[in-house]
Design goal:
By secondary structure, the protein is mainly beta. The chain contains three helices and 22 strands. It binds beta-D-mannopyranose.
Length: about 325
């Protein structure tokens, strides 16, 4: 189907629509025959391992965006001294990456989004008093301008929306403690200039067993005609420690602290060896998603077991339908 026909088909069949750019070269594999779930893994996973960079102990929770005629990314590299560092990387196809060994920032769990012609990076910035949310921007992934940290310690999982809403930048955050926090809700804060933040709003807390310990925002929210599609991680504490899985919700377009729909179960949880075995076993940690407005395809990048980067696929229809079919928000 060509683009116009696809748009007409979506309108007639009342299908969800991504509001954003077209990404014709989005990494993609069709859903395997007989697969009943809304998210499926790339068959060549993991796409990045420690062998992609000299002196890396592990390369995992990482962010990517379309850039030029390919893709750019910021990668979490824990080094052989076990320092937390961020480096850049480039790719033609979103699957095969060349990483640079120059450290751009110290910290971890980067998120990227493009807004107003700049690529904004948010990450877990390290301070002597605990972690906070670092903010920086670039035009070329070579020179970076660092802004004020977006909150005082202690917080993690700072995720910017890809455009201003009602004239304000909006940032999802997860207040936490200095350790492996045994609790956690998602909040939102607003700013006119990315320097001064306020208008704090509660967004969501754990609801079901699979996420009962804590929840935190994942990739940059995806704008759809139904609202903001948010993938997030939820953490379960078992007698063996934490298990991280990916859930999904739809937030109100204009007041994104309002959760319109939310799946009561995970959409992706540790199952494959590279998710079950590694430096931290049983971790699926999504940090980025590419979304093609033309086809509705979505490619999610996630860390596996705090050791590798992996890729999974879905479509906006599959995910939105699944969330609504398993909705824990009662009308
Ligand atoms: C969180 C963060 C993530 C990590 C996860 C599982 O607190 O440190 O980077 O993937 O724990 O270890």
């Amino acid at each position: 189907m060509i683009r116009k026909e696809r748009a007409a088909f979506r309108a007639i069949h009342d299908m969800a629509k991504i509001i954003g750019k077209e990404i014709p070269n989005i990494p993609w594999q069709n859903k395997p025959e007989g697969w009943r779930y809304p998210v499926w893994r790339y068959t060549e996973n993991p796409i990045i391992t420690r062998d992609n960079l000299f002196f890396a102990n592990s390369i995992f929770n990482s962010a990517v965006v379309p850039y030029g005629d390919g893709f750019a990314g910021v990668f979490r590299v824990d080094t052989m001294t076990r320092d937390h560092t961020l480096v850049t990387g480039f790719s033609k196809d979103g699957v095969h990456w060349n990483l640079n060994d120059e450290v751009i920032f110290r910290g971890y769990d980067p998120r990227l989004c493009e807004t107003e012609g700049r690529y904004y990076l948010t990450w877990v910035n390290l301070t002597p008093h605990g972690t906070t949310i670092g903010v920086a921007y670039t035009a070329d992934f070579k020179t970076w301008t660092q802004l004020e940290d977006a909150c005082y310690p202690v917080a993690r999982n700072g995720v910017l929306f890809p455009r201003k809403i009602n004239g304000e930048y909006m940032l999802l955050i997860r207040p936490c403690d200095r350790g492996h926090t045994p609790y956690g809700d998602i909040y939102l804060q607003q700013s006119k200039d990315l320097a001064y933040w306020g208008k704090y709003r509660f967004v969501m807390s754990p609801q079901k067993n699979w996420e009962m310990t804590k929840v935190g925002a994942g990739p940059t929210p995806i704008e759809t005609d139904e609202g903001w599609l948010l993938f997030y991680h939820g953490v379960l504490t078992s007698c063996n420690g934490f298990t991280y899985a990916m859930g999904a919700a739809i937030l109100d377009k204009d007041e994104p602290w309002k959760v319109l729909h939310r799946a009561d179960c995970f959409l992706l949880a540790p199952h494959e060896t590279y998710e079950l075995v590694g430096d931290v076993p049983n971790v699926v940690f999504p940090c980025a998603a590419l979304a093609d407005a033309d086809t509705g395809r979505i490619a999610v990048y996630y860390g596996g077991a705090d050791t590798v980067v992996a890729l999974a696929f879905t479509t906006v229809d599959e995910t939105v339908d699944f969330i609504k079919a398993h909705d824990l928000i009662k009308a």
